[in-house]
Design brief:
The structure holds two protein chains of two kinds. Chain A has helices at 38-51, 123-130, 152-162, 169-173, 180-191, 194-197, 200-213, 224-228, 236-251; strands at 5-14, 23-33, 74-75, 78-79, 100-105, 114-116, 119-120. Chain A is an alpha+beta fold. In chain A, strand 6 and strand 7 form a beta hairpin. In chain A, helix 7 (200-213) crosses helix 9. Chain A is elongated. Chain B has a three-stranded antiparallel sheet with strand order 2-1-3, covered by helices on one side. Classes of the chains: A alpha+beta, B mainly alpha.
Chain lengths: 256, 276
């Protein structure tokens, strides 16, 4: 597709800080290359704001390669925009028709308070990981390839879960702001493999407890999270989390 | 014991309560529908006999009675936990989006709370009209079967369903049942962790099949009653139509106070109270 230069009306959430009252602000942006990524379009808009002496729009970004999970943005009703399996940084302006309005909002969740504009505080996810999303038992030295018998299907299933970049799109997409897809991916990737199995019960119990404490909503199995997940993590992981949690609660040695 | 309470009050635990009570209510609905299909016998006399004998069995057989208490408990628990979950979920998203993409897999999955509220309102109305009247109601028709007196619940159902505006309310509620289960049945399995490559598509299909089964099955009852006894504008008009047709088709008809009717009362012992 040949490069074109488009014009857009950008309707974006501006909020000076966590305690300020935010609101939408409209900007007109011309000469946007269809080859630009969405974040480059925001960079371009910010340059015009800086030149005018205005405060640039604050937003999270890091790798811009679709693998770090830093970028967020709820674009025209969808986290990371309307494309399937794509992060905001990998979304390009050719996906947006010329002369249209683009509405950009921050992730909306009580557990993800707005810090400024489109930047939200996602440290609730870090605290959930700290509550058990790791392996603390001694797993020895690096093994020779294929020393541990792990069927390809199981390795693939664990890898699918491990693809979670922790961006929080699942929370943003869910009508209940539930973090179940994130937690289920973290529980699954470890529960499926021998190194993670040793602590699987405690992990499921602690991570769900931390998730509840952070004030995320509960899962009503609407499937919105998987539909919007940039890594396309499926609903079967949420079922596995439910299974892991319930069997752990019923059978583990931790009375808590 | 505390760990049990903590488990059931966690986010996953509350969903498990929703799932278990919900799936139990589905099994009730299946029995309720199949049993009440007896209303559809085209002959008024045999339909009345069969349905009224069935009603006595359902309200006196100990196992069914015990299950019915579990049922009332499940309805209350399902509604209460749903209320808590809804309030909690609203709190988790204090600011709504200006533009919402609605990525949920079905309309029903997004509107379970509204559908459930319609159903709760319906259940209260439905129990007031039939269950309460059957157990504690006032002056209603009774009929003779093998020399004994039976509460003519068939006539009460026929009367209620012949009133067109009530039947419309009923049909709307049955649509709500269908949509509620379209999502709810398969969601219950997912909550329990029962997601499997071999079964999940079957469960999802069963969920939709049940939804259609309940909508068609339950809706057939008011439609059949209006076809049988004609469409009425109010209960008095309907009661007269049902009485006239029943007597014409050979139903022994008397009116008495249902709340005072002892079981095993002989038909000759019944003193008719004045018909309305």
């Amino acid at each position: 597709m040949a490069e074109q230069h488009n014009s857009y009306k950008i309707k974006v959430w501006r909020q000076a800080n966590a305690n300020a009252k935010g609101g939408f602000k409209n900007y007109k942006l011309d000469g946007v290359s269809t080859d630009m990524s969405f974040l480059e379009m925001i960079d371009m808009l910010n340059e015009t704001l800086v030149r005018k002496g205005e405060d640039p729009i604050s937003f999270d970004h890091d790798c811009r390669e679709g693998i770090c999970g830093a970028c967020s943005m709820y674009i025209n009703g969808h986290p990371h925009g309307m494309l399937e399996g794509v992060t905001t940084c990998q979304l390009h302006m050719r996906s947006f028709p010329n002369n249209t309005t683009i509405t950009i909002e921050p992730w909306r969740a009580a557990a993800f308070p707005v810090i400024k504009d489109l930047t939200v505080n996602r440290s609730a996810f870090d605290r959930i990981i700290q509550s058990g999303g790791y392996v603390s038992v001694n797993t020895g030295n690096a093994r020779d390839a294929n020393e541990m018998p792990i069927p390809k299907e199981i390795a693939d299933e664990a890898f699918e879960a491990a693809a979670c970049i922790g961006c929080g799109a699942c929370v943003a997409a869910c009508k209940n702001a539930s973090a179940m897809l994130f937690v289920s991916a973290k529980v699954s990737q470890l529960a499926l493999l021998p190194q993670g199995k040793a602590e699987a019960q405690k992990r499921a119990e602690n991570m769900v407890a931390q998730m509840d404490e952070e004030g995320f909503g509960s899962c009503t199995n609407t499937g919105a999270c998987s539909a919007e997940c940039p890594k396309l993590i499926g609903q079967e992981h949420i079922a596995r989390l439910n299974r892991e949690y319930l069997t752990a609660k019923a059978g583990s040695d931790f009375v808590k | 014991m505390n760990w049990i309470i903590r488990t059931l009050t966690s986010s996953v635990g509350k969903k498990v309560l929703m799932s278990l009570t919900g799936l139990f209510l589905v099994t009730f609905l299946i029995v309720h529908l199949i049993g009440n299909l007896q209303l559809l016998y085209p002959n008024v006399l045999s339909a009345s006999e069969k349905f009224n004998v069935y009603a006595v069995f359902m309200t006196t057989f100990p196992l069914i009675k015990a299950t019915s208490y579990l049922l009332y408990g499940s309805i209350i628990l399902h509604a209460l936990v749903a209320l808590f979950l809804t309030l909690q979920n609203k709190k988790a998203r204090p600011t709504a989006y200006a533009v919402n993409g609605n990525a949920e897999k079905s309309w029903a999955s997004r509107n379970m709370g509204i559908l459930g509220s319609i159903l709760l309102f319906f259940i209260i109305m439905h129990m007031g009209q039939f269950w309460f009247q059957y157990h504690f109601g006032g002056n209603h028709p009774v009929m003779e079967i093998d020399g004994m007196t039976y509460k003519n619940l068939y006539a009460l159902v026929a009367t209620t369903f012949s009133v067109w505006w009530f039947s419309v309310l009923y049909l709307i509620s049955m649509a709500a049942v269908g949509f509620h289960l379209w999502h709810g049945f398969q969601s219950g399995f997912q909550t329990l962790g029962l997601n499997h490559v071999k079964y999940t598509s079957l469960i999802s299909l069963a969920s939709k099949g049940l939804a259609v089964f309940f909508i068609v099955g339950f809706s057939s009852m008011p439609l059949a009653m209006m076809a049988q006894f004609g469409v009425s504008n109010n209960l008095d008009e309907a009661a007269t139509k049902v009485m006239n047709k029943s007597i014409k088709e050979g139903v022994e008809w008397k009116m008495t106070d249902w709340s005072n009717l002892k079981p095993d009362t002989k038909w000759d012992k019944i003193v008719t109270t004045n018909a309305e």
